[in-house]
Amino acid sequence: MGIVLIWSLIVALIRWITSKRRGAISYDSSDQTALYIRMLGDVRVRSRLGFEPERRGSHPYLYIDFRILHSRPESAGPLSARKVRRLLSFQRYLHSSRFFRGAPPQNPLYILDDDYTGQAKCMLEKVGSWNFDIFLFDRLTNGNSLVSLTFHLFNQYGLIDLFQLDMVKLRRFLVMVQEDYHSQNPYHNAVHAADVTQAMHCYLKEPKLSKSLTSWDILLGLLAAATHDLDHPGVNQPFLIKTNHYLAALYKNTSVLENHHWRSAVGLLRESGLFAHLPVEDRLKMESQLGSLILATDISRQNDYLAQFRTHLDKGDLCLGNAGHRHFILQMALKCADICNPCRPWRLSKQWSEKVTEEFFHQGDIEKKYKLDVSPLCDSQTDTVENIQIGFMTYVAEPLFVEWGRFSDTRLSQTMLGYLGLNKASWRGKLQEQTSSGDDTDPALEETDSEVLPQGSKEL
Ligand SMILES: *[C@@H]1O[C@H](CO)[C@@H](O)[C@H](O)[C@H]1NC(C)=O
Ligand SMILES: [Zn+2]
């Protein structure tokens, strides 16, 4: 997914706008959105130029496995050779263990206390609720939220019967998917994937979709949601490019992460043999459609999708009897599910915001440690969770959910936009508290309109 990229874009835009504002030029918010979108290309260029070529290739960091760096701060201090070896062998264990999973040796759910299992089951009765607490569900399932939730949904939609899926293969596939997410990532881990899958389920149930989608569409939508960030390294694309990561070369600097998530998902599908009984044309069609859904989550392409969506809505020409149009709506639904954190109730939304900020700052710390340019939004000294959120909500989430609300004008859409507004106000409130208690506010910031411009980044 490209969520990390989005955020870097926001800050770049904010910096740009602020520099313009200092030149006494003001913009209304639609201009700002346009500017933000224009920044999408520039950031990539800038981060490339920002990296001095002579350092490349000789940099000690360049060939290190990211997973090693993702030991959490608590396990502090420089990594000893032993720790590195342990981490590496852990990874190797995870990978090799796949080949011995003929029959899942122990279903992790069985080791749970009956009471927790009972409570998790109880939660699944409300799996279609927008207030579903995925964090609680993850605790109740002992960290197996993605497996439990997705399996439950496959069952509930009747996909197991319809596609004659082998339940053992399905469970094994889902366990592999869950394990290929990095639990060390504060944000891009299996709980995020479970959250996106749950949101996708909510959208699939919306009247316009539920009366037109086929079982094939539902199967694809759920699979794409569950796998859309598979094996995410916890750093963004510019980071992979500037550190010469092999994935950047493999995917020619384009949708590097999304291509990797997709190819990883295809690898697991083939390895599990989940659809081995289907005709090869169907399997290939599934793999390619899965790719087109996952690639749609690349946020640097958000503008294209949004423009296309608007055009359809203006013309009123979306016809969900048409397979191509249904696929487009699935892409939009997955995009919404992927960035729906700001539309959840505050107590959930706030936790996501803190997690994503932690992941950004962790990337920034690595960049500082290895004397790379610190990526936008990743500097714990200057960026704040409040600014990051307000920018993200204003320039990324809101435009998307407004269009989605036009397409699917339902109570759920109203609820999501309602929470979005409330959550933004909450972050603004926190910002205000800080500003009124702080004394070193930059006067250049005070004159800016807090309605459209996040404040407080000291390097602005
Ligand atoms: C990817 O970007 C890097 C850094 O700018 C550049 O050196 C490399 O040639 C690019 N690779 C491709 C295939 O465009
Ligand atoms: Zn995602």
Question: How would you explain this protein's 3D organization?
Answer:
The protein has a domain at 115-433: Catalytic domain of cyclic nucleotide phosphodiesterase 4b2b, CATH 1.10.1300. The chain contains 22 helices and no strands. The protein has helices spanning 3-22, 29-49, 66-69, 81-97, 114-124, 134-140, 145-156, 159-162, 167-180, 190-204, 207-210, 215-227, 237-242, 246-250, 256-272, 280-295, 302-315, 323-338, 346-369, 385-407, 411-437, 443-446. The two termini are 28 Å apart. Helix 15 (256-272) runs antiparallel to helix 16 (280-295). With 460 residues, it is mainly alpha-helical. 2-acetamido-2-deoxy-beta-D-glucopyranose binds at residues 48, 241, 248, 252-253.
Topology:
Elements: H1 3-22, H2 29-49, H3 66-69, H4 81-97, H5 114-124, H6 134-140, H7 145-156, H8 159-162, H9 167-180, H10 190-204, H11 207-210, H12 215-227, H13 237-242, H14 246-250, H15 256-272, H16 280-295, H17 302-315, H18 323-338, H19 346-369, H20 385-407, H21 411-437, H22 443-446
Helix pairs in contact: 1-2, 1-20, 7-9, 7-10, 7-12, 9-15, 10-12, 10-18, 12-16, 12-18, 15-16, 16-18, 17-20, 20-21
Zinc ion (ZN) is lined by residues 1, 3, 192, 196, 228-229, 338.
